[in-house]
Amino acid sequence: MNNKKPDNHVNNLFLTSASVFCILLLIFSFLAIYFSYHDKKSRITSSMEMISTYTSQEYGNIVNNFWQAYMPVYETMKEDSTLVKSYFAAEDELTPQEKNQLSSLLKRMSLRDNRITWIALYSALRPVNYIQYANDTSINTLPDSFPYIKELTDKKQQMEVYGMRYLNAASAGNETFAISGGVPFGFGKGSIIIGYKTSTLAQSATLFPDNVKSMEYYVISNGQVVYNSEENYDIGSLYQPDGETDGIHTVNGTRKYVQALPSGNASSYVVCSINYGDMLRSVHKDTPLLLAVFIAFFGFSVFIGRSIQRQVAEEVAVIKEGLNILAENNLDYQLPTNFRQNGFPEIAQDINMMSSRLNESIKKAYYFELKQKDAEMAELQATFNPHFLYNTLEMLRNKCYSNGDSQTAGLIANLASIFRSFIGAKTFVTFREELAFSKKYLSLLIARYGDLVSFRYDFDSALLNYGIIRNVFQLLIENYFVHGFDANRPDNEIEFMGTFLDEDNIQLLVKDNGYGMTEEEVVVLNQKIEEPIRHSRENFGLKNLNQRLKLFYGPSYGLHIEKNESGGITVFIKIRKMTVEEYEENRKQLREPEGDPGSR
């Protein structure tokens, strides 16, 4: 066997599998590179987003807190309000006392935000304006070289943000940006301008990734650079967004990846950018190594695959030949399990186990077929005894008529009719036949209990044209007299009702005023009725009837019990609308023999 040359089919199958494996390996390698790229890119963009968000929050806090430092001028002492109003409305030189009072006011304003470097008052009417540095004890004259004079002169909006300027003063930081606000109506004309440290916006630089050198972030407002982490304050060399931006843009001939976020007010943005080339080099840092590893693994896999190809093909041929033997119904044959390839011994064992179980199943099926034939013979034999009993009852009925006992003869006739219905009885009968059978059965029980019980039928006349599986009501009548009938009361009653539930279904109700059950007992009984019959000891009447209904009509049909207002119980039965003719036609099409509904 092992000296045979493996057939071309096995070789081609193996080569195809190896090729698919190699292709999948290459796909996996490119996926790994792709996800590595996106992971590193995500880290960079996440860092940029964190920088933009942190800077935006810091800058926004400064802008939003501006009014808290500005407005107390008009909300504190009356003297301060009067002084500021006089400052912006008059041209007179301030007295030393007014300068001290003004200095005190501006110091209190600067204490409201520790990021404030200086506060200045500017009025075009005054020949001299003043500035108070946060770290200085006295107020100073605003110099002609003050870098925001032009912006204050051209000021058009109530609040404006000015970009970074170098302020040459011993008591202030060199780099500051400023926010100016106007004065309320009636206070004259002018501005209060507050300078802030740019260093407060430099904290975001600690979030820069270590492996990216060209990343920068900056804040711009109204065409001015408020802060730039790379100290580039030439607005013409920077990207200026007109809304929230995330993507690649060309700035002065250089491609950059940019994230822009609105901040503070409608005209301010925080922009974080990185040279796109640096970004690509950073995210593809590991790509050459990954490619080398996967190419090496690919070559090694091809080499190993070709070396074991012959061994695999030979053992596959052994398994194939064994399957051919089993296919010829030689189910006692067992494949060898001493294969060298990993997994082949388990495959052989599974095939051997499968063939053994199949062989056993065939033997059991043959045995059960013999038992079924024995059961059919026993069923044919059993039909003799009911015939004998029926003939005997007919003889007794005639004897009673001969002796003038017509009442007893009538009861015997009903009993004989009931037994006769069991002999060769049909599975599916009309409602008329089922109701007639139930009345005969009731007559036997009423003969025993007399006037202690009454019964009533209330059925839709159109419903009588449809059919039902036989002996439904007989079982419910028997259940009532066993469990619900009270021999100590004269008004026992059982009522049978039937109506159309909808276009496809019929609902039957059997209602009594018997002993009844508690709510808990009803719940337990309904649960037991729905449980499958596991052995003959569980085969009580209601469960048996429910199983017959579900087997015949389907799992959505059956019966359930409810407690009624008279103290007894009501049995609700749901069945499908079907005439006897429809049933017979269905049986004819399916070529099913007449039999018990449980066989359906």
Automatic annotation (TrEMBL):
Q: Does the keyword Zinc apply?
A: no
Spans traversing the lipid bilayer: 12-37, 289-308
Task: Give the species.
Answer: Eisenbergiella massiliensis
Q: Which domain of life is it from?
A: Bacteria
**HAMP domain: residues covered:** 310-363
Database matches in PROSITE patterns: HAMP (PS50885)
Matching Gene3D superfamilies: 6.10.340.10, Histidine kinase-like ATPase, C-terminal domain
The name on file for this protein is Sensor histidine kinase
Q: What GO molecular function terms would the record report?
A: ATP binding; phosphorelay sensor kinase activity
- One cellular-component annotation, GO: plasma membrane
Topology of this chain in the membrane: Multi-pass membrane protein
Subcellular location, principal: membrane
Where does this protein reside within or beyond the cell?
Answer: Cell membrane
InterPro entries attached to this UniProt entry:
Bact_2-comp_sensor_kinase, HAMP_dom, HATPase_C_sf, Sig_transdc_His_kin_internal
Listed A to Z, the keywords are: ATP-binding, Cell membrane, Kinase, Membrane, Nucleotide-binding, Phosphoprotein, Transferase, Transmembrane, Transmembrane helix, Two-component regulatory system
